[in-house]
Amino acid sequence: MTVAPPVIEKLRDIVGEQRVLTDDSAFQQYGVDRTTIWQPAPGVVVLPETTEQVQEVVQLANAEKLAVVPSGGRTGLSGGAVALNGEIVIALDRMNKVIDFNAVDRSVTVQAGMITQQLQEFAEQQGLFYPVDFASTGSSQIGGNIATNAGGIKVIRYGMTRDWVLGLKVVDGSGNILELNHGLVKNNTGLDFRHLFIGSEGTLGIITEATLGLAKPPKELSVLVLGVSDIPSIIDVLKVFNDGMDLTAFEFFTHNGMERVVDHSEVPTPFESEAPCYALLEFEQTSEAELDRAMELFETCVMEGWVLDGVISQSLTQAENLWKLREDMSETLSQWKPYKNDISVNVSRMPEFIARAEALVSEQYPDFEVVWYGHIGDGNLHLNILKPDELSIDDFTVRCSGVSKQIGALVEEFHGSVSAEHGVGLLKKDLLSYSRSAAEVALMQQVKKVFDPNGIMNPGKVVDAI
């Protein structure tokens, strides 16, 4: 598929001469996300500034029978923003403004290209808090977060992105502008199409604006890192702390992953002794009594043999360094081009699932290094297989993708998800059947047909057009 010169001229008429890019460096920048499997090959990149410009580009794409790939912060890990076949890439980087703020409703309306960290900083300036948080907040965009229903480190307390979306403005696959829910908390007037676009990965249309709820900021946060005797014991620790106090985060990582972070980020190890794995807990220290309660729960876990050692933050700097042990994990491991499995099961079934998954991984990857980490407090595990230097990326991918199907079958047995928070994109499309029935996939295809009748929106991602 190619984009003809007359079409490129029409795109320049819509967004401006300098906002239509056709050089290879632009294709490399805007035509791919953080996956390393595919080489981008878009036909043209456009950078609109308004919803109306997005609409005109989508209408032109329909008229010319050209496919469209939405491009946000390009921090995805499933190939959802990859353009492989001469598509029009619509990059939302210029659509990054605050449109409205309402202190009474505790809501803010922003363009979809706003960086997550900028939204968090804006909320803080208003004395409020946007709680969706993860390692890529400095580069991810709000539209992409919504399109993948991003989760992150605060889900155990605040939920997923979906829980904070009060309204959306979207351009669907036909080029219609839809204004969904208008920021209302209660609106029981039929089907809520807003929730179809959340998590749709750009397959139904392009999110251009979002109205998001904000929360009261948390009080002083304390971070506790615990050395844990084994992965199943982490679930015991989680239960004890969940029963005993309100947590804002509960994360985990294995020792080999932490070692790499310490070397890469030059942060101190949490304590002298080593443990097979670690739990990171965060909670609001509203009083000394809350701190005392955390120490009591810690001592209980030590007496049970689940926890070997621990440290609690004594300053903001120490809290930040403890968080880096977990937050820097993905960036650190990226240099080994890991094959990632982003899976989830109900927390109550975690011990059994982890034991089965550990056995499978040990059997299938005896010569690969495997790093586990994730948001275990909400049932989300990230399984990372590190690529050996001597193995080509193609051979490595083939070997790992085959085992991913076995992991998918295990996830299906536990009624879990093959994509807890990263989306399906291209990478997990063949694994979708392990989490969704044939009837559900068929319904997804029919929904896509309604909103995108010509099948131009992010083709090949999640499900095929019909």
Automatic annotation (TrEMBL):
Pfam families documented for this protein: FAD-oxidase_C, FAD_binding_4
GO biological-process terms attached to the record: respiratory electron transport chain
A molecular function GO annotation: FAD binding
Domain of life: Bacteria
Signal peptide (from-to): none
SUPFAM superfamilies: FAD-binding/transporter-associated domain-like (SSF56176), FAD-linked oxidases, C-terminal domain (SSF55103)
InterPro entries, alphabetized: FAD-bd_oxidored_4_C, FAD-bd_PCMH, FAD-bd_PCMH-like_sf, FAD-bd_PCMH_sub1, FAD-bd_PCMH_sub2, FAD-linked_Oxase-like_C, FAD-oxidored/transferase_4, Oxid_FAD_bind_N
The keyword DNA repair is assigned to this record: no
UniProt key word Zinc-finger: no
Swiss-Prot/TrEMBL cofactor(s): FAD
Occurrences of domain FAD-binding PCMH-type (ranges): 38-217
Keywords: FAD, Flavoprotein, Oxidoreductase
Gene3D superfamilies on file: 3.30.465.10, 3.30.70.2190, 3.30.70.2740, Uridine Diphospho-n-acetylenolpyruvylglucosamine Reductase, domain 2, Vanillyl-alcohol Oxidase, Chain A, domain 4
PANTHER family according to UniProt: D-2-HYDROXYGLUTARATE DEHYDROGENASE, MITOCHONDRIAL
Family under the similarity heading: Belongs to the FAD-binding oxidoreductase/transferase type 4 family.
The protein's name: FAD-binding oxidoreductase
UniProt organism field: Porticoccus litoralis
